Amino acid sequence: MMLSTKLPVSMAKVAAPGQSARPVACPTPRVAGAGSARRLPVARATSTEGDEIALLEKALSIAKERAAKAKTAAAAPAAAAGGYSGPAFAIKTFNAISPVGLERFPAGKYVVSGDDAKLPASPMAIMLRSHQLKQEEVPPTVRCIVRCGAGVNNIPVPKMTELGIPVFNTPGANANAVKELVICGLLLASRGILEGNKYTEEVIYKEENMDYDKVAKRIEKDKAKFVGCEIEGKTLGVVGLGAIGGRVVNAALALGMKVVGYDPVLSLDAAWKLPGDRMGRAESLEELLKVSDYVTVHVPYIKNATHHMINGANLKLCKPNVSFLNFSRGEIIDGEALLDMYKSGRMTGKYVSDFADPFLSGHPKHLVIPHLGASTEEAEDNSAAMAADTVKDFLETGTIRNSVNFPQTVLPPKPGHVGGRLCIVNKNEAGVLGQITTFLGTQKVNIEQQINTSRGDIAYTVLDLSKIDDPAGLQDGLAKACPGVISSRFIGNMFDDEMGKPGTFFYVKWASS
């Protein structure tokens, strides 16, 4: 139909800023078309055409002015809460990090950017997702590295450990996302869903030339080609009972499955979250494999520990129709050994993963999808927020949680403490802690409280000291007196005193020699 060219608006008052409003009448134009004519409301301004043009120009001018002010405000550095105007922590990002996480950093006290030119100083921390980090991208000013996710195989962790740099991850932040994908994988392995969809698109549609009636009959007739089984009452073996595995256990139980779990390094916190009275516990991986109809793995990839955890030897213990779900790391399951089992006919179940396999590529039993485990908006938000909180806690208090190469270390602040906190990364060797405390004693520095932890070749010591007159001199002397010290950092009253200013009093021996 065709409408009158006059604009349809309701009865309204239109006014330029600072002018009184004028009523605008709304007559009804005819609508051209078959049948009886209808009328729709349109505006007929009582003002002159020149007034209307002036009004539009004025509105456009105001809009441009507002846009310019918004652009200027966005470009200006944000003011810190509480009126802080000193130096800020510089955080370098690789990849796009969720704004939900970046907003956790207080404006003015932290500057976060993927562009070095926009940072106020050399990076003091690094945040990343999938970027393959190289050693040369880590300047001596970096205190820590955090990955927004669980796996850290894109970070040279051994070298960072050698340099005394803790590497953090965000375990559990993507747990629900992965759990939901595991449930999806159970159904994909059981009901011929992907195979049926592929058959419909590549066979039925083509053979029936997209004729609806014929396609509908074929879809009904050919359903027998994809008869599956139900998961209720079947046994799910869960390898790894941490944040993700624990959620999978509860979800599987809710679906009516039987569950057997295995985790030789189960933490106390994770154990408390498991429904121990409703699930079985396997004493070994072999025991779990023998009784499971489905096996899902939720363990980190560790070269000499979980590499080919599922292999040719223990695959022979499985039920012939067992299906495997792998949303952890591809190297955990030996694809070549699984292919041999398929070729020999000793195994008929599916292998569902979001990782490619060099031996199973294109095999009908391998249902591979893109790496979707944590690819939800919620998981990315949770991971970024957790990563930001972890970095802040470490930079401001020296606390270490969720590190893959450093020991967990938490020293609550001492009430009334007015001195500085000294955080020391040192070699985990006999006598080093004694050297540190002895040196501080020679400097007449009192230790008010302390904690010393270790992990592998690295030890981490946090000391709350009495008032320090020369922090830099104390750090230099400590490094000379204690060869085992790798780096040290003073933390004062954060953002309130000289030692509490970001970027101050950070000593790195390997960069100072």
Automatic annotation (TrEMBL):
InterPro entries reported in the protein's UniProt record: ACT-like_dom_sf (IPR045865), D-isomer_2_OHA_DH_cat_dom (IPR006139), D-isomer_DH_CS1 (IPR029752), D-isomer_DH_NAD-bd (IPR006140), NAD(P)-bd_dom_sf (IPR036291)
PROSITE patterns: D_2_HYDROXYACID_DH_1
Gene3D superfamilies: 3.30.70.260, NAD(P)-binding Rossmann-like Domain
The D-isomer specific 2-hydroxyacid dehydrogenase NAD-binding domain, residue ranges: 218-352
GO biological process: L-serine biosynthetic process
Pathway annotation from the record: Amino-acid biosynthesis
SUPFAM superfamilies: ACT-like (SSF55021), Formate/glycerate dehydrogenase catalytic domain-like (SSF52283), NAD(P)-binding Rossmann-fold domains (SSF51735)
Keyword Transmembrane: no
Residue ranges of domain D-isomer specific 2-hydroxyacid dehydrogenase catalytic in the record: 140-405
Keywords from the UniProt entry: NAD, Oxidoreductase
A Pfam family recorded for this sequence: 2-Hacid_dh
MF GO annotations: NAD binding; phosphoglycerate dehydrogenase activity
This protein's name: Phosphoglycerate dehydrogenase
Organism: Chlamydomonas reinhardtii (Chlamydomonas smithii)
